[in-house]
Amino acid sequence: MNFKGSSPKSENITEVEHLVAGEQRARLKGHKGGVFWLTGLSASGKSTLAMSIERELTKLGFHVYVLDGDNVRRGLNADLGFAPEDRTENIRRIGEVAALMADAGLIVITAFISPYREDRDRARKASADKFHELYVAADIETCKKRDPKGLYKKAFAGEIKEFTGIDAPYEAPENPELKLNTGQDDIETCVSQAVDYVKASVALDKS
Ligand code: ADP
Question: How far is CA 142 from CA 18, 38, 127, 139, 183, in A?
Answer without folding.
Answer: 47, 18, 32, 6, 7
